[in-house]
Every structure is written in structure tokens, then in C-alpha cells.
Amino acid sequence: MLKTQILYDTDFNLWVESQLRALQEGRYEDLDMTNLLEEIEDLGRRDRQALESHLVVIFTHLLKWEFQPQQQCNSWKSSLRNSRIKIARTLRDSPSLKNFVPSVLEEAYLDGRKIAADETGLALDTFPEAPPYTLEQALDGDFLPESRTHPLE
């Protein structure tokens, strides 16, 4: 048991392989339960954090697309597509997370709004305080907002 705890700190991949073998072979006494439970908890947390992070990226680029049309570029479209694909795949693999996405929509938008202001140099109040895009629009692979030439016109 002590060996697997040390292994956890010194060679994580080898620790994972040893835990997998112990489970496959029914050697439950060889499991590092403390770290194994922690890692299982982290798995769910990682997916939720990734979903929220991808939503932030989507909102950042949608706002930049709408409010800085002279800077529109294919890398923004590519970033949007990448984040939308990753969200779709995560939700396909873990459908129970579908209810999580709407619960972080507003917070992800507010973060994306701040990042868009930082990246564009436009004032934060240039961007709407509430999300101007629905979740469906944000996740739609073809959606791009209409460009605005003046803030909040």
C-alpha cells in the first residue's frame, strides 16, 4: 500500500497502470483508495471545467466577431469550431452534463465579456451585460452574430 502511495507522487502514469491491473485482477487490497477516490472525483470536475472553459472561448470570439468586425479572421472561426466540437463530444460522452452547461452560461459569458474587452481594447461596457446569444446559438457550428459598427446599436 505504501509503495502505491509513493508511486502516485513519483510516477503518476505507472500508478494508474498499477491501479488498473489491481482492479482487473481483483486485488483490491493493493488499491491506493485515498488517491483513487480523489482521482475519480477529479475526472468529473475536469469535464465540467473544460465545458465552462470552452463556453468562455465561444463567448469571447462571438463578442469579438460582433463588436470588432474589422478584425474578423479565420482563426476566430477555427477557435469557435474547435470549442463547439469539444463541447459536443464531451456531452456525447457524458450526456448527464447537458444540464450543467445552462447552469454556467451566464458566468461563462461574463468571463468571455471581460476577455473580449481585454483582447479588443474596447471598454467593458461596449458589450452587453447579459448574454446576447442563446445557448443554442453559442453551440451552433454555423452561427456568427451580425457585425455591429457602433457599440450596442
Please, could you describe this protein's structure?
It is elongated, with a radius of gyration of 21 Å. By secondary structure, it is mostly helical. The longest helix has 35 residues, at 33-67. The chain has a domain at 47-139. It contains six helices and no strands. The chain starts with a helix and ends in a 14-residue tail after the last helix.
Question: Key features?
Answer:
single chain, 153 residues, mainly alpha, elongated
Please write out the topology.
Layout: H1 2-10, H2 12-24, H3 33-67, H4 74-93, H5 100-120, H6 135-139
- Write down the overall geometry: elongated
User: How many strands appear in the DSSP assignment?
Assistant: 0
Can you count the helices?
6
Q: Biggest sheet: strands, sense, closure?
A: none
Distance between the termini: 65 Å
Q: Give the C-alpha Rg.
A: 21 Å
Series of secondary-structure elements, N-terminal to C-terminal? HHHHHH
What is the mean predicted local confidence, pLDDT? 93
Summing up helix and strand content along with how strands pair, one would put the structural category as: mainly alpha
- Low-confidence segments, given as residue ranges, are none
Helix content: 55-70%
What portion of residues belong to β-strands? under 5%
